[in-house]
Fold each of these.
Amino acid sequence: MRDVYMVAGGVSKFTKARTDKTFQAMVKEAFDYAMNDVPNLTIDQIDGSVASYFSDHFQRQLMAGIMVHDYLGLCPKESKRVEGGGATGGLCFQTAWAEVASGRQDVCVAYGFETMSHVNTWKGNEFIALASDTNYDYPVGGFYTGYYAMMVVRHMYEFGTTREQLAMVSVKNYHNAFYNPYAQKRQKITIEDVLNAPMVAYPLGMLDICVMSDGAAVCILADEKMAAKLTNKPVRIASVGCGTDAMRMADRPHGEVILLPHESPDDYKGLKYPGVHSFRAGRMGAKLAYERGGINNPLEELDFVELHDAYTSSELQTYEDLGLCKYGEGGQFIESGKPNLDGICPVNPSGGLLACGHPVGATGLMQAVFAFWQLQETIGKHFGNDTLQIHNAKRGLIHSHAGTGTYVTVSILEKAF
Amino acid sequence: MEKKKIKLPETEEGTVVFNVPLPEDLSQLKKMSPIIIKWPYHIDYIHSYGQDSPFFAGLANKKLLGTKCPKCGYKYATPKFHCTHCGSECDWFELPLEGRIHTWTTCYYGSQEFLKETPFNLMLAEFEGVDTLLLARLVGVSQDEIRIGMKVKAKFRRNSQFKPTDVYFVPAE
């Protein structure tokens, strides 16, 4: 396999409703931004694309991917769509990586979007809940916040996690997003605001949950030769990993923890894993990415993480899956300040999904773009202020997550200049 | 924190409009506001429960059916007709009608289809000697009374709707 580099990225401003543009024009906005960042790249040097959008229901347009590919002027080059719920963006990024790594393409465009404003929030929740077993689960009261609430209720029972610890995640991410002009929610909030927000599904309130968004994101990936021609600040995709789990939470096993290199079986005596309190898919994705990228101690070797915080609870659970702390210690990890902007390993320095928004197909690619700018040290240029720039960041992790933890992708990006 | 905005709730009602003004100067068009229309959509699916059908027949007859693998012995509270672990075809068996709460939540909002039923409780039930769980509604108990490990018993609708909500759980203690 060949080394693959990210050479440019673009993100549309995530917002509740982009009524001024259709999905094609919204992606074009992000695409043009990325193309402007690599002026030596011409359309004829692009070999193909991969499309990312989650639900056909929001747009009610089948084959929307080809309409974007056409709108970007990429016909008749090769293209395909990938889909895997909330992880669609991460899967798209990894598919574009595979196109280049395999030698099939030298320059590949990964683009993603979602137009969630086309239905009201509660209909949108219905569409999302169709990503649960429609024989056994959806008809019982299909609602993703309800599913995540059940998972964190069990996490609280197993490990003593508190609502205050969950609230700290939201406060951190909103704080970061305040300095990110691409973020949908830019307001500073307190622990009390989170705890006093209207309850959605116990223990998750309105400020524990990401919002519906319209938005698009684009990543341009290239092989070593093209990357050298296009940019003097390339970022290498050091490794990729992906894990899976059963659609139905009820089916999750209660077995042994999948161990990372810095863990031992003694750490988890008596813990039934993953149950519904942990994401086995996230752990598997991390294990593969770490093995393939030569990472032995993620907390020490990663300079920052952009992870899929659709809920405050899932960020806290993901600290554990990624091995930033041991299983059960997610609550203490947020309390320690380690994932803060000035901590040992900032998590979601962009503001994450909670505050940036979650236009599903765009989200995993948005994370890649923000990570790319961090590693290029160009946050100041793209955000108009460098508050969120992590200085001397050499290696970052992006994490994209579907369903109740069904597909999870983990990709490691490294500064290559 | 943003101050609470005072505003009327948005609705999806609207007015039928058959025409809009257009400026004579076409260069003005790029500044035009988007036209947003209502586009209804309704479908009746002809949905087969397929190999899961006996579960629903069981509910109609006040029986809770799970499956078990004849080869490796794994027992599924939410039926799976082929075993995840060894691929064998499973057999049906009757689950006990009493179990315990493995985890739970109270939903104060929900998807549009279930919004009118809020607040409602969801739970995952665990059964003695069964390897997987079952998602169901928990009825007759409020958020502050629910505990993990609480004993619950299954109840069935008299008039079956052939939905997994034909069974629901109530406190057994």
Amino acid sequence: MSTETAAATAKKESLFSKKNRKLLSDPLDDSNPITVQVLGICSALAITVQLQQAVIMSLSVLFVMIGGNVIISLLRNMIPDRIRIIVQLVVVASLVIIVDQVLKAFQPDISEKLSVFVGLIITNCIIMGRLEAFALGNKPGPSFMDAIGNAMGYAWILLAVSVVREVFGSGAISLPGMGQVKFLPTEWFMSEGGFYENNNLMILPPMALITVGIIIWIQRTRNTALIEEN
Amino acid sequence: MAIDKNSTGYTFLFSIIMVVVVGTALAFTALSLKDRQDANAADKKMIDILGAIGVPANRSNASELFAEYVVERVAIDLNGQQVSATSEAVDPKDKEDPFSIDVKKDYRASVKSAVKAADGDEQALSVALADKNLKFPLFRCVNEGQTLYVIPVVGSGLWGPIWGYVALEDDMTTIYGANFDHKTETPGLGAEIKESFFTVKFKGKQLNTESATLFSVLKGGAPTDEYSVDGITGGTITSKGVDEMINRTLKVYLRYFESETRAQR
């Protein structure tokens, strides 16, 4: 925290200074919200069955994260300490409702697919965690960078997991606006007399946890500093 | 700053201002987007109804195709008596229009608990629903010279609501087509009810008007006859929900069809 407060007191600092760039890159790997801090796991399990849901979810989280971090950072000197968590919750919840309403009005088909999960962004621990740990003690500029960094750190895990799950679970890839593209020839499937069958386990939530686990495994093999001693 | 931001007075003031600001912002968002959302919901309903009679539609041509294919919209009551009917253009804002009957809302508000309490006892169910003043919409369509009746059905799956539209041919016992959708069924299992491999099985099946069960969705893999379809393997509870909503809802409509045929004689 002490370095962050120092950054806040430094006079004119560029938004893309080394320190700020670190805010952006750290959450992608060394302090990834999902694989290192193990936050936001619930939504990573729920909406990674298809890539297109993961994409829209990531964009929604990006919006809420940036909005929440910047608003809380702007208000940080006005928010009474005793109700700061409630204030954060109200800000996040309002942003989520706005995202949900806008999706319903302008992207009804995608909104239908995401159903309750947009609302569940409110309970995403990453957002509340960053508001409490970062935005409350930093200027809007760095908070903005921190929001992008963490949302992207969340997003790439989500995208990676959903690609694995969709390819092996449905034999397809889907992107918003394109629908689901099945790339395996139908005659390969056992129901058509072929040799291949989709892995139904991939569609179920436990496999998301295992996929996240594998990502954590790979990440810690590459970056041994992350391994806890005990 | 002269104000102590941890004083009780400031905390209250802050909360009040926050609530007012947030409330205004959200109310404004909701109100300004409401018309669009309602239009989207109406379009979706038309797409689903057209889907049940095998007319593919999208959001841009839904209302046009709806006006072309759906010739009459009827509202009936629980006893199968016609309450109102119209052939005019759909006005989603008109509460009296059978198109505006929100069967999902009715299901949530009264039917769901009554179905649970009755536990399969039809007599008890109709008694429980008798004073609810329920209305059931029916859409009479003409596709390629054939008269078709589209009936909305609503029920419960494993995790949440499921719904759909069943289209009957003009003998009122042959299923012309059906489509289903769900809110939160398990992907790959119960959620498959919306897929075409499941809905296509309903085409050409009969309603067994002689028996207490009009139609059955069987446990996945069981042999089927002309009055039943194969359910979703691994989606047993969702399949049962489809079975339940079809039987419960179609019985109401059959009473209407019977009185109609009698009237024609």
